[in-house]
Amino acid sequence: MSKRKRIIALLVGVILLAGTAGTLAWLSVTGVLVNQFGIGSVTPSVQETLNGKVKSDVKAKNTGTAPAYIRAAVDIYWQDATSGARLWDEPKAGTDYEIAWSVADASGANSADNWVKASDGFYYWTSPVAPGAETGVLINRVTELNNRVTELKTTGGRNLVVDISTQAVQATPDEAVRDAWGCTVEDGVLVPPHGGA
Q1: 165: closest CA among 36, 69, 74, 33?
Q2: E strands within the chain?
Q3: How confident is the model over 155-189, as pLDDT tens digits?
Q4: CA-wise closest residue to 68 among 138, 140, 136, 135
């Protein structure tokens, strides 16, 4: 075979190889599919009615985009009316304020749609809360008492604060709530850690 025929054969081979590679590259590019997955969020908020010195219908709402388990902490304390600082003297239930809870006792800990107080101090809602949905009422009503004797004894200058803070964790998989809070889930019902209080 002459040198010219070899060069032509080599060029034809390179052109065929380039055409095949180009076709394969085009096929792989047209076969690409991009999947975009959104990340869910769990964001709780406190819903309540405040009328003067009466707070009522306190519950939590899932303002996130994924179903979530919700727990709440309730902190009741005196605050200095001038500086806003927290005072060491603790208010006493029945004397300084009255509170009506809507919390199941420890024996109701394994039923759905209840608030249960665990020994870790948190109140747990036992069912997953859908996005945009609310829990049941945690506190029916809390009222600061206007006891004249108490006001004179304490010399006034302070306000009663009932602070409710909420936390949420995704409802699925069950391991998420176990890892985050130490809870278990039995037949879709959250069982708080450390048992009921």
Answers
A1: 74
A2: 44-51, 54-62, 68-80, 97-101, 115-117, 123-125, 139-144, 158-170, 184-186, 189-191
A3: 468 889 999 999 999 999 999 999 999 999 998 89
A4: 135
Report CA 24 to chain centroid distance, whole Å.
49
Per-residue model confidence (pLDDT) at position 151: 47
Residue whose pair of structure tokens reads 């390179």 in the numeric block: 14
The SS3 assignment for 51 reads strand
Place of tokens 């309730």: 74
Mean pLDDT by 10 residues, the chain (197 residues): 75 68 52 59 90 92 94 94 90 94 72 90 94 96 72 66 94 92 91 69
- The CA dihedral of 48, 120, 188, 136, to the nearest 10 degrees, is -20
